[in-house]
């Protein structure tokens, strides 16, 4: 019985003690986008940043979420906000995804899982890895002010926009 308890604690402890980034400086990143241009956190200083992680290009939920952020992109820009999507997909996959649905904002290729680990959104089991569907709102000074751990792809863009308008 003790063995089962110990195994459960080890298995679920990352979930219980996940990093809470709200109120702290956002972790740095340096990743290529779909145009193979390297983007860093500093590129967005002075603006609000909606940094959203999603599991996989060209999948139903991720496509819905990207389409909705694309639809609302001008509204975010009017609030001095930029949108950036991040997944473990490579640059070529992001190029195809962005072109297929007309995404007007950067999609970052985190193929080495660095940003996913820094933001504590790396999921999967064994060799199958993905980024969890989570979003961070980073203020113009570079601090995380909001973390969405549970995201509904259909409603998420509208929710983030509403919350950003209130900040």
Describe this structure in words.
One of its GO terms (cellular component) is cytoplasm. It catalyses: a hydroperoxide + [thioredoxin]-dithiol = an alcohol + [thioredoxin]-disulfide + H2O. Residues 20-166 form the Thioredoxin domain. The chain is of the alpha/beta class and 167 residues long. It has one domain (2-166): Glutaredoxin. It has six helices and nine strands, in the order H-E-E-E-H-H-E-H-E-H-E-E-E-E-H. The strands form three sheets. It has a five-stranded mixed β-sheet. It has a two-stranded antiparallel ribbon with strand order 1-2. The longest helix has 15 residues, at 2-16. Residues 3-18 have low confidence and may be disordered.
Notable traits:
24% strand; two-stranded antiparallel sheet; disulfide bond; Peroxiredoxin_BCP/PrxQ; redox-active center; Glutaredoxin; 167 residues; 5-stranded mixed sheet
List the helices and strands and how they pair.
Layout: H1 2-16, E1 30-32, E2 38-40, E3 48-53, H2 60-71, H3 73-78, E4 81-87, H4 91-101, E5 107-109, H5 114-118, E6 122-125, E7 128-131, E8 134-138, E9 144-148, H6 156-166
Parallel strand pairs: 3-4, 4-5
Antiparallel strand pairs: 1-2, 3-8, 6-7, 8-9
